[in-house]
Each structure stands twice: as C-alpha cells, then as structure tokens.
Write the structure tokens for this entry.
Amino acid sequence: MRTPPAPPPPPELSGGPSALPAPEVARIAARDFDAQGAALEGRPAATALAIARLEFLSRSLGPGGAMAGYPDSFRFVMSRAVEEGRQALAIEPRAAPDTVIAALVEASRALGAGREPNLGPPVFRDAQPTPRERLQVPGPFPNAALATAALAEEVARRNSGAATTAFGVSRSP
C-alpha cells in the first residue's frame, strides 16, 4: 500500500507558489536558521513560519514526502530540529505535523495583521513563558541550523547533478 502524497505547503512557507516547494522551503529554512536562528529574535511572525518550515521539511523527508528518497540521516537530523522547535515554542510533542503547520501559519498571519494569534491547546501547551512570549525570543536553534544547512546543501547538490553517498559526503556522477 502506497502512502498518499503529502499536501503542498501553504505558500508562505515556500515564499509563494512553487512547482517544487520542498527544495525551496529547504533553502528558505537554511536562511531562517543561519547563526542558529539569531535573526528570528523579536520577529514572532517569522519565527512561526520558520518552525512551520521545519515541520513541513520533516514531513517531506518521510514516507510519501517529496524528499522521501533522501538518505535517512536527513530525516534523523530534521526530527531533532523539529523537537527543538517544538520545545522552543511549547508545542505539544504528539501534535500532528499538519495541525502544527496550520496553527503556525495562522499565527504568523494573525501577527502580520496585528491580531492576537490562537496559541492554546491542543497544539500549544500551557507553559511559562507563554508560547506568545516564546515566539518573541525563540532560540538558539543549533539542531535546526545543522539540519537545514545540510538539507539545503543536499538540494543544491542534487540540482547540480552531484551524487550523495552519505550525509554530507558527495561525489561527482
């Protein structure tokens, strides 16, 4: 039995409509988490989208995902990045990725429109500091920095025609 393909991401995650959104999301996520996400501090709407990108990329690396053919090592490091993002924002560890993505994108939209986002259960845990406060000062994100940089590098390698033999090791075809 085949896993049904995952739905495309909300356009905010890939910077707009894209024929190949997963590689574009990977490139944007690498920028989000450059310097362990330091540029996200004080930018709650951008932080919500950055964490949503991690969730989307993790799903994309899983069965039926657009990047399912990538080495398992990418799925492993991305799962650590997702865990880091969920801890940073007090997101329920067992929440479904699609539910988390939708909640974070909606939070980003609300913040961008000057509205208060819905950051409560079942996606977000009651915690101190609150999820809203955590969006303001979210990082650092060392695992996300490593995972997104490696994945963006692999995307670039695959687009250039180079072959990957293992996580971070490439050879010419």
About this structure: The radius of gyration is 16 Å.
